[in-house]
Amino acid sequence: MTETQLRPAPREVRSPEAPAAVLSTVVKRFRNAKGEEFTAVDGLDLRIRRGEVVAFLGPNGAGKTTTIDMLLGLTRADSGHVELFGQAPQQAVRAGRVAAVLQSGGLLPDLTVEATVRMLGSLHPGADIEHVMARAGITPLRHRRVAECSGGEQQRLRFAVALLSDPDFLVLDEPTAGMDVVARREFWATVREDAERGMTVMFATHYMEEADQFADRVVMIDRGRVVADGSASSIRAAMTGRTVSALISPRDAQAVAASAAVRSCVVRGERHYFDSTDSDALLRVLVTQTSATEIEVAPRSLEEAFMAITHQGRDPQEASR
User: Which residues form the signal peptide (predicted)?
Assistant: First the structure.
């Protein structure tokens, strides 16, 4: 079956240079149970290029879900502009150009896996049922009831359903929740293949290693605004300092931790980990003035960068919520 046959209807041909998604000074407000107004998205600006795999990260309450809902046409911005492929989100969704894999819901527990895909595939004339099941790795599960599937298997079923319309833009919300390591790697290999064919992918995850390994670009938001935007390596590099670890005696470790090149020190098992502002100076101290062995130097992790960036300007009580 050809790519043309897979699509539900002819689609507008647009320049490949045109962005897949644009959000311009978008604001969205809600009222809480007390009737108090709060701003979930506060002047957010974001452009997503075609074929990108974008990790969309933020702490709880940062505005991720609200932003995703606006991209999917599930809610409208109070002000600002949101478009997908030059259209309003609702139009793009109706045209089958946008699909989503959400973390929960949307499945009937008494249906089999195959019956679920076939039922929803009937909404997309020309959809290749066998192809999407194979792409999602659920062909061996075809006769299993949804209720009997694990959480990770249900996520793969949702992925198959999302592929039925052969979308141009795929939104993933915690897509690998419940998957084991092998299934998670297979899932991302499939997503990467789709992205190489031109699909744009935006995913929200709490697995920082997924954002680090699989995203072309990382966008961090906090309090409804973009606070970091770039490759995972560039975001890590923007955070000063490195972590230096070693096997070292407690006495030597205490002396090293007191030096100006060390911000803090923690012990994990037999190793001491020094948060260093000057790793070169710290290495000289460890090599020449201590009996430290198995010394390792590591750049900041994406998780450390995420914590530092999204907790800037928060008081301790606010940061803990």
Answer: none
